[in-house]
Design goal:
This protein has 279 residues and is an alpha+beta fold. Helix content is 24%, strand content 20%. The strands form three sheets. Strands 1-6-7-5 form a four-stranded antiparallel sheet, with helices on one face. Strands 2-3-4-8 form a four-stranded antiparallel sheet, with helices on one face. A two-stranded antiparallel sheet has the order 9-10. The two termini are 28 Å apart.
């Protein structure tokens, strides 16, 4: 599943390509599990609207659109947000109209200049829904990892009696972190993923926060990790997987100490770590 760096890369790429464009037409596939808001409502809210921005909140892409150009005769005024969750295999691609639709395309927004913004999702775990501000824009289920202060970070994790890896995956605490960046950050912070959050010292939590922010920013710079179906808005793969220290390196030598990387299960998820470097 795409995590924060991948979703950030896609959102930024889509924003650069489509913000300011008017949505001329909306097509949806009729696959009911994809749409948390009825398709007719999505089409009515988006058609004729202008795309103000595309941004990331946690693992969700948020597209804000303004009122339709015919708002004076429409019941809707103001803005609305389209929430796009990519699930396991979702893609959001900006395509020329002559490029054939990929199998499992579930939504197409035809833009004023003729290009198309396409949502493709083979496994149909992705979701599209509407969120209508005001009073508030969509903020997601947890805190933002890239901007949370040290004191707030410690306050989130220090009371938890779960393994720190499980706590990092809890989207109600920090949103956007998944298996890849939890494992990679814990390695760089030299913290074993089985350690109970409540037993970590303030210094260890500070080290983890620093490692987490550095890993996420580096991954964003490299366009994310392409370990499965992930591609950016142009269909290009990321490169951070070449920088992985532990994730999916079971049995391979640690890049620091040469000890074989181990894999265990925590909270039902595969977890990779170095038994020598992480204490």
């Amino acid at each position: 599943m795409p995590e924060l760096p991948e979703v950030e890369t896609i959102a930024a790429g889509v924003h650069a390509r489509v913000h300011g464009q008017r949505i001329a037409r909306v097509w949806t596939s009729g696959a009911p599990q994809t749409f948390k808001t009825p398709e007719a409502e999505i089409a009515a809210a988006l058609a004729g609207s202008r795309i103000a921005s595309v941004r990331r909140v946690g693992k969700t892409i948020v597209m804000t659109v303004g009122a339709p150009s015919f708002a004076a005769s429409s019941q809707r005024v103001g803005s609305v947000e389209l929430l796009i969750h990519l699930g396991m295999t979702g893609r959001l691609l900006v395509s020329a109209p002559e490029i054939p639709l990929a199998p499992h395309t579930h939504a197409v927004l035809t833009l004023g200049d003729g290009r198309e913004l396409r949502f493709v999702d083979p496994r149909r775990f992705g979701r599209l829904s509407l969120h209508a501000p005001p009073p508030t824009t969509y903020t997601g289920p947890g805190r933002e990892p890239l901007t949370i202060t040290l004191d707030d970070f410690i306050a989130l994790f220090h009371p938890r009696r779960t393994p720190i890896k499980a706590a990092l995956l809890d989207q109600s605490l920090l949103h956007g972190i998944g298996n890849i960046y939890a494992d990679e950050s814990l390695f760089r912070a030299a913290i074993r993923p089985t350690r109970q959050s409540a037993r970590l010292t303030r210094a260890e939590l500070a080290r983890l926060r620093t490692a987490l922010v550095k890993v996420l920013r580096h991954a964003i710079e490299l366009g994310g990790s392409s370990v499965s179906d992930y591609v950016d808005a142009d269909g290009a793969r990321g490169f951070f997987q070449l920088q992985h220290k532990v994730y999916r390196r079971t049995g391979q030598p640690c890049r620091v100490c040469k000890t074989p990387i181990r894999r265990i299960q925590i909270a039902g998820r595969s977890t990779h770590f170095c038994p020598s470097c992480q204490m």
